[in-house]
Design goal:
The chain is mostly helical and about 80 residues long. The protein is built from 3 helices and no strands.
């Protein structure tokens, strides 16, 4: 909604690359950690890292915390 029209293709391409590549890295991390510890530890670590990453992004980029979709959040 806020991406300028002339950058939408590039943003879409970046979204595609992240969507295609990051799950593979997560699988690699999970598999390596599970082979060194246990599957439960690996799953717990993955969840905690996800939460820590979200908190870190919110701290570094406060505009993400304040963003509200004005088109779909209007009262009916």
């Amino acid at each position: 909604m806020v991406t300028p029209d002339d950058l939408r293709g590039r943003v879409n391409a970046a979204d595609y690359v992240v969507g295609a590549g990051v799950p593979q890295l997560g699988s690699l991390e999970s598999g390596l950690l599970a082979s060194m510890t246990s599957p439960v530890t690996s799953a717990l670590a993955g969840g905690l890292l996800t939460i820590a990453g979200a908190v870190a992004l919110g701290a570094v980029l406060p505009a993400f915390r304040r963003y509200r979709d004005t088109v779909t959040s209007r009262p009916a």
